[in-house]
Design brief:
The protein is an alpha/beta fold and 229 residues long. 41% of the residues lie in helices and 12% in strands. The protein has a domain at 104-114 and 125-229. It holds the Pfam family Spherulin4. Residues 46-69 have a biased composition (Low complexity).
Length: 229
């Protein structure tokens, strides 16, 4: 089983005031130089091990192995959670500053029901900026396109003595179907219509609990990825 590999840093709560650009640049420079240094050290250790221990069955992982860090300078993602203003957008999307920018982080209902905020700001993004933009939505069981209604979910009850599904199980299945439908609508807009670089969707109201609609999100995301390749 491949090991988990750290390829970059996600910087949360990023300010969008231009006066913080120098501060953000220092963070990015530190991240990238750190990843580059680690990759260089791993590569050096791997080469030294291969040269000096040809008879050994053990060696240090190479810089490109699954157990190592990225061989590049490290991916930097900024999360202001909102679109940078038009007058500073170029600076906040600069490749020198960042690799990806989370331009939307809110409940799913806000993506669909925020007036023209989302559509107007998306229209201002050039194709180059869209290729670096990410949208994140939580509370995907609610919103204008939800089929969940007043269902709150919960743990499924056990089958009765005859093996029939109880109301609790039916309610949870209905909620999961609604979440999956909402996620599919959201990802279709993010990926197919607006051609943004990335996305994340969760039915939870925060990121401290495991999403009950995780399987649905993964399935929709994989289908979209296969369709756009």
């Amino acid at each position: 089983m491949p090991a988990i590999r750290l390829d970059g840093i996600f910087v949360d709560e990023v300010p969008t005031d231009a006066k913080y650009l120098d501060y953000l640049q220092r963070i990015t420079d530190t991240v990238r130089s750190g990843f580059t240094e680690v990759a260089s050290r791993r590569s050096h250790c791997s080469n030294k091990s291969n040269n000096n221990n040809d008879n050994s069955s053990l060696s240090a992982p190479s810089a490109s192995s699954p157990t190592s860090s990225t061989t590049g300078p490290g991916i930097v993602i900024h999360n202001p959670g909102i679109f940078p203003s038009s007058d500073s957008s170029d600076a906040f999307f600069s490749p020198r500053l960042v690799d990806y920018v989370v331009v939307f982080e809110n409940c799913l209902a806000a993506w669909w029901d925020s007036g023209d905020y989302v559509s107007a700001n998306l229209a201002l993004l050039t194709p180059e900026k869209r290729a670096k933009a990410i949208a994140v939505a939580h509370t995907c069981g609610c919103g204008p396109k939800s089929q969940a209604g007043g269902i709150s979910g919960g743990r499924p009850q056990q089958q009765d003595s005859e093996g029939h599904h109880t109301d609790g199980e039916k309610a949870e299945n209905s909620e999961k179907d609604a979440i999956k439908k909402n996620v599919q609508n959201f990802l279709n807009e993010v990926v197919t219509q607006h051609k943004l670089a990335g996305h994340f969707a969760t039915s939870a109201t925060d990121y401290a609990t495991w999403c009950s609609g995780w399987e649905g999100y993964v399935e929709v995301a994989c289908d979209l990825a296969a369709a756009t390749c």
